[in-house]
């Protein structure tokens, strides 16, 4: 038994010293000290040893185990130190090298403009509401006082999915959903992407964004509309901004108007930016048509309201003095990194 244990010890130590990595060392540990290892097998044979010799044999087995474990720990520490040294050499940092530029993204001009608009109207007590981009013809047209034979349908160059479904041409459809599902008072803005079959050029795109607003309450007048939009214009373009309203026609509002603001470049004196007029058209607005209220289940004898709509890209183009709408969508990093 003594000779057998000596042979196991010498063989194990020899293999341990030949180990090239920690994985190989672990295999040796399992082979000699594991549940099915050689020393364990010796211990299982203790039943065949005479009782008076068992203490001596047990001591010899323990001494052999201790010797193997000590040698294994020594080699393990040496291998770990070598591996750490090799890793440090491989990962050495040359502090004289120029640093890598950390490229940080930022918000798109449209997003910046939208967040500013939302901040203004939320500050005025409005709620931001979004709706589906694929819409029923009823909500996109009919509920907004635009029946099947109305010329406004032709003017909007709609993308039809089928006879009853369209890619929405305006976010006014969100306002109809809100009027049907909520009771006045209502104060919302509805930002989102809209679609029209337009040719791509400097001022047109088949996909663009709108922000539309709606207020429904008792005793709402055109004066409330003017005061709200005047405050909006001052917050967006500066405290000295003036506004004017020109009569217009929209099927879903009556009376309707387009609102201009004084040119924020020249203060209304006339310049290249405003084409010498001193004014810049900014949005359309008006009092909600009584028939639109009726179709949404709101009594026009009890409630009145106003609505307005502004193109988000138009705000971004004006605010950042961009002369071509296509730049917003071409994903040219040289352009976008300026904002």
What would a concise description of this structure say?
Its main location: cytoplasm. By secondary structure, the protein is α+β, with helices and mostly antiparallel strands. The protein folds into two domains: 89 residues; 228 residues, Bira Bifunctional Protein, Domain 2 (BirA Bifunctional Protein, domain 2, 2-Layer Sandwich), CATH 3.30.930.10.
Please explain how this structure is put together:
By secondary structure, the protein is of the alpha+beta class. It has 2 domains: 2-90; 109-336, 2-Layer Sandwich (BirA Bifunctional Protein, domain 2), CATH 3.30.930.10. 42% of the residues lie in helices and 19% in strands. The protein has 12 helices and 9 strands. It has helices spanning 2-18, 22-33, 38-44, 54-90, 109-123, 137-140, 151-155, 172-181, 222-237, 290-295, 312-319, 333-336, and strands at 127-128, 134-136, 165-167, 186-195, 207-217, 243-250, 253-262, 279-288, 304-311. The strands form 2 sheets. It has a 7-stranded mixed sheet with strand order 1-4-5-9-8-7-6, sandwiched between helices. A two-stranded antiparallel ribbon has the order 2-3. A hairpin with a 2-residue loop joins strand 6 (243-250) and strand 7. The longest helix is centred in the N-terminal third of the chain and has 37 residues, at 54-90. The protein is elongated, with a radius of gyration of 40 Å. The termini are far apart. It catalyses: tRNA(Phe) + L-phenylalanine + ATP = L-phenylalanyl-tRNA(Phe) + AMP + diphosphate + H(+). Its main location: cytoplasm. Mg(2+) binds at residue 254. It comes from Eubacterium album. GO terms for molecular function: phenylalanine-tRNA ligase activity.
């Amino acid at each position: 038994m003594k000779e057998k244990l000596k042979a196991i010890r010498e063989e194990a130590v020899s293999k341990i010293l030949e180990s090239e990595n920690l994985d190989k060392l672990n295999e040796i540990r399992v082979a000699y000290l594991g549940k099915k290892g050689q020393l364990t097998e010796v211990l299982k044979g203790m039943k065949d040893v005479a009782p008076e010799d068992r203490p001596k044999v047990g001591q010899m087995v323990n001494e052999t185990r201790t010797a193997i474990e000590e040698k294994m720990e020594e080699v393990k520490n040496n291998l770990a130190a070598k591996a750490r040294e090799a890793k440090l050499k491989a990962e050495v940092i040359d502090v004289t090298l120029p640093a890598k530029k950390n490229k940080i993204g930022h918000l798109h001009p449209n997003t910046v403009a939208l967040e500013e608009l939302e901040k203004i109207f939320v500050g005025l007590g409005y709620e931001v509401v979004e709706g589906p981009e694929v819409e029923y013809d009823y909500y996109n047209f009919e509920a907004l006082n635009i029946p099947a034979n109305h010329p406004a349908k032709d003017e909007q160059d709609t993308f039809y999915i089928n006879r009853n479904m369209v890619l929405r041409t305006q976010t006014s459809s969100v306002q109809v959903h809100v009027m049907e599902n909520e009771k006045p008072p209502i104060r919302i803005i509805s930002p989102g992407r809209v679609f029209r079959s337009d040719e791509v050029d400097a001022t047109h795109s088949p996909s663009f964004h709108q922000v539309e607003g709606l207020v429904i309450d008792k005793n709402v007048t055109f004066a409330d509309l003017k005061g709200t939009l005047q405050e909006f214009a001052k917050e967006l373009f500066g405290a000295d901004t003036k506004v004017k309203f020109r009569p217009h026609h929209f099927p879903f509002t009556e009376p309707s108007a387009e609102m201009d603001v004084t040119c924020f470049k020249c203060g209304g004196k006339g310049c290249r930016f405003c084409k010498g007029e001193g004014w810049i058209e900014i949005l359309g607005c008006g009092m909600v048509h009584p028939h639109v209220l009726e179709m949404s289940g709101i009594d026009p004898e009890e409630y009145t309201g106003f609505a307005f709509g502004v193109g988000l890209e138009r705000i971004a183009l004006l605010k950042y003095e961009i002369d071509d709408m296509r730049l917003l969508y071409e994903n040219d990093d040289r352009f976008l990194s300026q904002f």
